[in-house]
Amino acid sequence: MPKLIRLMPLNIYNRLNIPNKNSPIPQKHGEFIYSFLKMNSIKKTLETGFGYGCSAAYIISATKSTHIVIDPFEKSQWKNIGLHNIKKLNLSKFLRFENDFSYNVLPKLLKEGIKIDFAFIDGMHLFDYIMLDFFYIDLLLNNNGYVLFHDNQLLSTNLIVNWIKKNKLNYTLIKEDSCFVLFKKIKADVRKWDHFIAFYNCKKEEKTLKEKLRELKARIKV
Ligand SMILES: C[S@@+](CC[C@H](N)C(=O)[O-])C[C@H]1O[C@@H](n2cnc3c(N)ncnc32)[C@H](O)[C@@H]1O
Predict the structure, then answer these.
(1) CA spacing 20 to 30 A to 214: which of 36, 60, 200, 203?
(2) Ligand 1 atom nearest to 53, measured from its CA
(3) Residue 122: which of 25, 44, 36, 20 has the closest Cα?
(4) How many whole angstroms separate alpha carbon 222 and alpha carbon 219?
(5) Do 54 and 16 form a contact (C-beta atoms < 8 A)?
(6) Per-residue pLDDT reduced to its tens digit, 32-66
(7) Residue 77 CB–ligand 1 contact under 6 Å
(8) Alpha-carbon span 179 to 158, nearest angstrom
(9) Mean pLDDT calculated for residue range 173-201
(10) CB-CB contact of 67 with 46 (8 Å)
């Protein structure tokens, strides 16, 4: 890993126009993605949520291959800054930009017969949207491919992560922290038609929130 980080093109992050630092993934996450893709020689990639193009810049810099990005608000909300950033890095020829909602684009890609080896899910962070992104990405993903979730601190993301851990037994967890969760698809889905393992318990969640509140209060006292 350190060797690969040394091979990272200098200053990807500093060369990007990022008017609001809270929107894109932070530099260290970009560097993690870059190193991971390089280390695993991954080429066929996709992401939901393009924004300022920060994650895309790291992904394409690592693969120098076609990267499919999906974002319906690139023009209206992000003023095409993501597209300009990728152009600035001279990487536009590797970008397939889909100006639409992921729930429209992902089924279209499936019909096109697209297969991928890595997907980054960082689009709409509502539970149902993330689940739908994962549902289609799972169908697009080759065996031995990877899916990376951003924002595991959100309960919406974390619930889906827990559902995968309990129910998608053809996936193995590679890395998890409060921000990133990385799974590898190890084989085809072999669930029976009625398979379901409970993954969420409201009572347990209430308790967790109470515990969190207690911790917070204790910290404020200190
Ligand atoms: C957190 S930002 C992505 C940041 C980006 N990964 C980066 O590093 O610059 C989330 C993005 O999801 C996009 N988005 C919102 N709803 C979406 C949807 N239904 N499908 C695809 N993208 C969506 C937003 O426009 C926004 O750009």
Answers:
(1) 200
(2) 9
(3) 25
(4) 5
(5) yes
(6) 999 999 999 999 999 999 999 999 999 999 999 99
(7) yes
(8) 10
(9) 93
(10) yes
CA distance 35 to 31: 6
Beta bridge partners of 96: 68
Tokens matching residue 149: 């979730």
Positive or negative torsion for Cα 62, 66, 69, 75:
positive
Single-letter amino acid code for the residue at 204 = K
CA-CA-CA-CA torsion for 65, 66, 72, 77, nearest 10 degrees? 30
Contact 197, 169 (CB under 8 A): no
Nearest CA to ligand 1 atom 11: 49
User: Closest by alpha carbon to 26, among 61, 45, 62, 51?
Assistant: 51
**Verdict on whether the full-model pTM lies above 0.85:** yes
Q: Does the pLDDT of residue 6 top 70, yes or no?
A: no
The domains found in the chain, sorted by start residue, are: 2-221 (3.40.50.150)
Kindly state the DSSP code that residue 13 receives in the 8-state scheme.
G
Tell me how far apart the alpha carbons of residues 211 and 60 are, in angstroms, rounded to a whole number. 42
Q: Is the CB of 53 under 6 A from ligand 1?
A: yes
